[in-house]
Write a structure and sequence with these properties.
The chain has 203 residues and is α+β, with helices and mostly antiparallel strands. The protein contains 8 helices and 4 strands; from the N terminus they run βαβαββαααααα.
Length: 203
């Protein structure tokens, strides 16, 4: 298998974390790829028509894209039910947590693009404030739950850990821990897992 990724991408990190947790990392070739919204990557476009990472070329030559699809594929490849609970309330809660983590990340990326890609004179303050509000509401929701997560580490926890790691990477002065002690303590603990320690984001 071949994974198109960037070491700075939180969604690609999510896939890499899943691969390590599932014991599949050695089966995946990593292809480092640059993606800039204003300059489409033609090589990637041949693999993923959406020109986004991550994208995973699987053994039959077809390509899967979107981290949610790729992560669930890897879970099935490892036997199923390991990071994605198979059924019932546990499954829906894990998927909801994944949506929460991905949503925080989506808002953060939109904010990052506005700040880093658009000329400063064209920055839209209301847009920036709106995306920050989404991030903060999402983090507050995670804070309310974090005390009950215990030792569990499913796809929802992975998505949230990758979101928090990306915020630390791109917005190191955000101060998100100041009012979210339970979430901060949880993240400090899970960040020691090999899957997260080995995939720290970098430019």
């Amino acid at each position: 298998m071949k994974l198109w990724y960037s070491p700075a991408s939180p969604f690609a990190r999510k896939v890499r974390v899943c691969a390590i947790e599932l014991g599949l990392a050695a089966r995946i070739e990593l292809v480092q790829t640059t993606v800039v919204p204003s300059k489409p990557n033609e090589d990637l476009a041949r693999e993923n028509p959406l020109i986004k990472i991550p994208a995973l070329t699987i053994d039959d030559g077809s390509v899967l894209y979107d981290s949610r699809v790729i992560c669930e594929y890897l879970d099935a490849l490892a036997g199923g039910g390991k990071l994605f609970p198979a059924a019932g309330a546990a499954r829906w809660q894990a998927l909801r947590r994944q949506a929460l983590g991905d949503g925080i990340t989506d808002a953060g990326i939109l904010r990052r693009y506005e700040l880093a890609q658009r000329p400063e004179a064209l920055h839209w303050p209301e847009w920036l404030a709106g995306q920050l509000a989404k991030m903060n509401h999402g983090l507050d929701a995670a804070e309310r739950e974090a005390g009950g997560w215990g030792e569990a580490f499913d796809i929802g926890h992975i998505a949230l850990a990758c979101a928090l790691g990306w915020i630390d990477f791109r917005f190191p002065d955000s101060g998100w821990r100041a009012t979210r002690p339970r979430l901060g303590a949880w993240f400090m603990r899970v960040a020691q897992r090999a899957s997260l320690a080995q995939t720290m984001p970098h430019a």
